[in-house]
Amino acid sequence: MDDFHLIDKAKQGDLSAYSKLISDHSPIVERFAYQMGNHIDDIPDISQEVFIRVYRFIDGFTHAKFTTWLYKITLNVSRDFKRKESQYSKRIEKVMNEPLVESSSAPHVRVLREEEDRVLHECLQKLDEKYKAPIILYYFHEKKYEEIADILSVNLSTIKTRLLRGKSLLKKLLEEAEKREGTING
Q: Which helix (H) or strand (E) holds 61?
């Protein structure tokens, strides 16, 4: 069953169709949210919020490309989550007067960390979001320039420029990381 058929059925209240949409698209949402720099432990919460928003706003979905709409929602939820997390972390640090430590004991951490090269991921996270998002969408999610422009709500020439500049910045970061690794291991 294609996405449009599932969406139509979900709009009519068919929960099994909605469930199928979730199972089909959860891996994309989780991967994109992780690549955008969210903590691995937060990915299930972000994914859940994305699909809650899909459910709430599915009646307003037009027959545009569903995955484009899904990427937009995931990007917005990720931004919201980072904003909330930052505020919460500052309050906790103030109360506890010590930095928070990221937990990485969950079994799904290993799977996602194996999927992406650690150094590349760390370098990607150092990029400004305006460069990071287009690079991730183009290279890891194989989106076309037009789709990226639609997802990020910017014009096509801006996407091309950001990809070019982002690749250049990423290359420099990777070279620096390689030099540091060589110094440490050499």
A: none
Pick the more confident residue, 2 or 32: 32
Domain ranges of the chain: 1-107, 116-186
pTM for this entry: 0.66
Task: For residues 40 and 105, give the distance between their C-alpha atoms in angstroms, rounded to a whole number.
Answer: 10
Write the DSSP symbol of residue 103: -
Query: What is the identity of the amino acid at 132?
Result: K
- DSSP 3-state of 2: coil
Mean pLDDT of 35-62: 92
DSSP H or E segment with residue 111:
helix 107-115
**CATH code matching the domain that covers 116-186, chosen among 1.10.645.10, 1.20.140.10, 2.60.40.10, 1.10.10.10:** 1.10.10.10
